[in-house]
TrEMBL record:
GO MF term list: heme binding; metal ion binding; ubiquinone binding
Location(s) in or outside the cell: Mitochondrion inner membrane
BP GO annotations: mitochondrial electron transport, succinate to ubiquinone; tricarboxylic acid cycle
Signal peptide: none
Recorded superkingdom: Eukaryota
Species, as recorded: Chlamydomonas eustigma
Residues reported to bind heme b: 63
The protein's name in its UniProt record: Succinate dehydrogenase [ubiquinone] cytochrome b small subunit
Length: 132
């Protein structure tokens, strides 16, 4: 691994202390504050909703990663921080990939998935009866 790659990895692993990541955290806060009302008010399948879903798919893992790194710094002993930060990087990456998959490949998107929690699934056909 080159020195440049090692330095970048170190900045990502300790995202709560590097100056650039604090700016990313601030931008993620603004993105979440703006995208949440848009997601609620947008019509299903609209271009606004699709764009909002993409913003959420980037902002949620970025915000989570930086904030959880601050928790690692505050609450874990120094010996446990390194493994915890690698685990957190993996978790953040999997979260990002899962949200992108939900948006692009095999799902209705983040907004429609959340909206679906408030609706009962539609049943196709009559309700089965149990014979005694």
């Amino acid at each position: 691994m080159s020195a440049l790659n090692a330095a970048n990895l170190q900045r990502v692993l300790s995202a709560d202390t590097s100056a650039g990541s604090l700016k990313v955290h601030e931008l993620a806060n603004y993105a979440l504050a703006g995208a949440t009302p848009l997601a609620i008010l947008s019509s299903p399948g609209s271009l606004i909703q699709k764009g909002t879903d993409m913003v959420l798919a980037v902002a949620i893992p970025a915000h989570m990663h930086i904030t959880m790194n601050a928790c690692v710094t505050d609450y874990l002993p120094k010996a446990a921080r390194g493994p915890a930060r690698y685990f957190l990087l993996g978790t953040s990456t999997i979260t990002f990939l899962g949200l992108m998959k939900l948006n692009l490949i095999s799902g209705p998107g983040i907004t429609e998935s959340i909206r679906g929690l408030w609706y009962r699934p539609k049943k196709d056909g009559p309700t089965p009866t149990v014979k005694k």
